[in-house]
Amino acid sequence: MRLAVIGAGAVGRSVVDLAAEYGHEVVAVADSSTAVVADGSDGRNDGVDPEAVVTRKAEAGIVGDDDPADALAADYDVLVEATPTTLDDAEPGFSHVTTALERDRHAVLANKGPVAERFGDLQAAVADSAGEIRFEATVGGAIPAVSTVEDIEPGHVTAVRGVLNGTANFILTRMAAEGLGYDHVLAEAQDLGVAEADPSFDVDGTDAALKCVILANVLSFGAADDPADAREFTLDDASVEGIRDVPGSALRLAAEDGRTVRLIGEATGETVRVAPRLVPENGTLAVSGTQNIVQIETTHAGRLNISGRGAGGPETASAVLGDVGRLE
């Protein structure tokens, strides 16, 4: 498959770097201000040089000399939307995806915004297109949460819950293990690069909530006989509580009772909730460090657990490229 990659952050660069290993060719790459598009003037399109793109981005801060619009207009089979997540109107990611669909091309998203904030609009665009969308990478990085729910069939899934943010989990794990306070561990996480300089998206529960909103939309739309009957979820529909106010004393008291605290997100076809919860210290949901876990409750197959790395360039790129493979 020929890929146009929009977004040249850690995920986008990893997709460019790994695409050939998965049997695909990158024919265009764009960041926010520049692009590089393979020359197809001779009737052939041999793709861009992945190493040159990644190196130029690292050294010069740009990917090429073309305009980002040229990448959207390139001759590709699949658009990879890997720009940063934005809320509300989910732009510019939403327009990137709909542009691909209007051209009857496929789109694979790593950007959570369009599927969390404008899922119904995306489904309408898909209905009018010969293209499809996939978005495994928006929930849990390398963990195949979305595809597992789809394989079971959403109508047979009653709930999906889990630890869905590595930064928050790292902080809670360190607080519990070392008896340290939130501010101390947050500073440590920032020094290690586990937390951003502004950690609000992670520690306030927004990132986990967006992932749960996406899962709720998959459950709702997947179980509906008619998409018009499905309930569409956005971040505004989620009940969200972060970890800033979790005191070290709560973790110490929990440990005395054989329990610990984790930021747990839960999605059903009716509700989305994210909040710190007490879980058994040696239980399935008590994953440590930056690990994530997704727990799927089913009507006939019982409870399924999938854990792994929920973030990272190569990890998330593997989910993107797995989706590309599903579109072949």
UniProtKB/TrEMBL annotation:
Keywords: Amino-acid biosynthesis, Methionine biosynthesis, NADP, Oxidoreductase, Threonine biosynthesis. GO terms for biological process: methionine biosynthetic process; threonine biosynthetic process. Residues 146-324 form the Homoserine dehydrogenase catalytic domain. The keyword NADP applies. The keyword Transport does not apply. InterPro entries: Asp/hSer_DH_NAD-bd, HDH_cat, HDH_CS, HDH_short, NAD(P)-bd_dom_sf. GO terms for molecular function: homoserine dehydrogenase activity; NADP binding. Its EC number is 1.1.1.3. It comes from the Archaea. The active site is at K211. NADP(+) binds at G7, A8, G9, A10, V11, G12. Residues 7-135 form the Aspartate/homoserine dehydrogenase NAD-binding domain. L-homoserine binds at E196. NADPH binds at K112. Residues 307-328 are annotated as: Disordered. Pathway: Amino-acid biosynthesis; L-methionine biosynthesis via de novo pathway; L-homoserine from L-aspartate: step 3/3; Amino-acid biosynthesis; L-threonine biosynthesis; L-threonine from L-aspartate: step 3/5. Belongs to the homoserine dehydrogenase family. This is Homoserine dehydrogenase. It comes from Halorubrum aidingense JCM 13560. The lineage of its organism: Archaea, Methanobacteriati, Methanobacteriota, Stenosarchaea group, Halobacteria.
